[in-house]
Design brief:
By secondary structure, this protein is an alpha+beta fold. The protein has one domain. Helices cover about 15% and strands about 35% of the residues. It contains two helices and seven strands. The strands form two sheets. Strands 1-2-3-7 form a four-stranded antiparallel β-sheet. It has a three-stranded antiparallel β-sheet with strand order 4-5-6. The termini are far apart.
Length: about 130
């Protein structure tokens, strides 16, 4: 069975913000690391010092919504730091199946992460 794939790598990306809702959904806004960008963006960043785009990932139908929301609220309270993504991928410790995906997300601090138990995720690229 095929599952949705992550279209981009978010390694070393900065978690800029997150939003909850409207129901059991969380949207993450991540500024990807410049070397991971396509040529259309990387030359702008290097030559013109334009900031890399902020892409989003929306997780929907989150079964462990309270856990996920609490995790991101605790990160948001630490205003002195911007969380840097280590990796986002299917959780190798859990078995995903259609409508029940396990997506793990870890940050550059050891042991700091969360697993989304969700029905789907959608990535959106910054239109700039």
């Amino acid at each position: 069975m095929q599952f949705p794939e992550m279209k981009r790598s978010y390694t070393w990306g900065a978690l800029i913000n997150f939003e909850s809702g409207p129901s059991r959904e969380v949207t993450l806004f991540i500024r990807r690391y410049p070397t991971d960008l396509d040529k259309r963006h990387s030359h702008k960043w290097k030559e013109n010092r334009v900031a890399p785009p902020v892409d989003s990932i929306r997780f929907s139908g989150i079964e462990n919504f309270e856990e996920v929301q609490t995790f991101f609220r605790s990160i948001k309270r630490k205003k002195h730091m911007t969380p840097i993504v280590d990796w986002i991928a299917y959780d190798p410790k859990q078995k995903s199946k259609p409508g029940q995906l396990f997506i793990a997300m870890f940050f550059d601090s050891p042991g700091v992460g969360v697993t989304f138990q969700c029905s789907n995720f959608v990535e959106s690229e910054d239109p700039s």
